Amino acid sequence: MTVATCAHVKDLPALPDPGVPDSCPACVMAGLTNWVHLRMFLTCGQIGCCDSSTPRHASNHYEQTGHAVMRSAEKGESWRWCYVDQRIV
Ligand SMILES: [Zn+2]
Ligand SMILES: [Zn+2]
Ligand SMILES: [Zn+2]
Asked: Among residues 44, 40, 45, 49, which one has the least CA distance to residue 81?
């Protein structure tokens, strides 16, 4: 393996799998219901909507907090994405 591992993953707390969340809390607070996919931050458990959703709450959360790694919160998906490394980790 020549690919460097993501330095952010190893610092993450062991969060329990939340199951499949059914809404983006920031969208709900804003009165929106048209999020596309949901993402969960592994640092803090925050749920946010993906970049295909107009408000892009997941990206906003990264920009505001620097929390680097999120996972898909879609049923059957378990991939993780590091915003800092810009790749699946
Ligand atoms: Zn990383
Ligand atoms: Zn949202
Ligand atoms: Zn966070």
From this structure: 40
